[in-house]
Amino acid sequence: MDYREIVSVTGIGGLFQLMATKSDGAIVKDLADKTTRFIPARLHNVTPLESIEVYTTGDNVRLHEVFEKMKENENVALPDPKKADNNTIKAYFKQVFPEFDDERVYVSDMKKMLKWYEILKKNELLNFDFYKQQEESGAEAPAHEAVVAAEVESTEEKPKKRSKKAADTEGETEEEKPKKTARKKKAADEDAASVEKPAKKAAKKKTSEE
Length: 210
Hints:
The chain is an alpha+beta fold.
């Protein structure tokens, strides 16, 4: 396992080793508890760390270059992402990586990088010699898809809940919907009765002779 196999997953904290990919997702191993799980593509985005770039005051740099600077400056106290205030975290990155653009990189992203660095260090994944060998051999670098170590939530819209009534009547046309006939039937019966029943004859008045 090396750095190039490590990925982040939107909506799930920590880092993972990419074990396999499928048409509907990916199988990953959690670097923290070593458990393996399936990540469905419809719910999460899986992003390789080596495809992530970070904003600087000049050209963007790949994320591993920031990690390298952090490793080279381990004499500088690493802020606790859970306890340190924003100014302390910004000051740290300005010290270890002066070109860091703290106006375009959010503090939440900086905290994430601190967490990721600790996980990589614990798993002995801070060796980036293969990138130097790649540069020396003139091999083409991987395409960079993500910018900044920011977690982007899935934009896939979840289907809205429909009421039972809406679900039952969906797809019916006006002709298909049953028409209310009870009231009309009653009215028709009343009309028929008025036609069929003969009018009552008035009783004959007795004459005085009778």
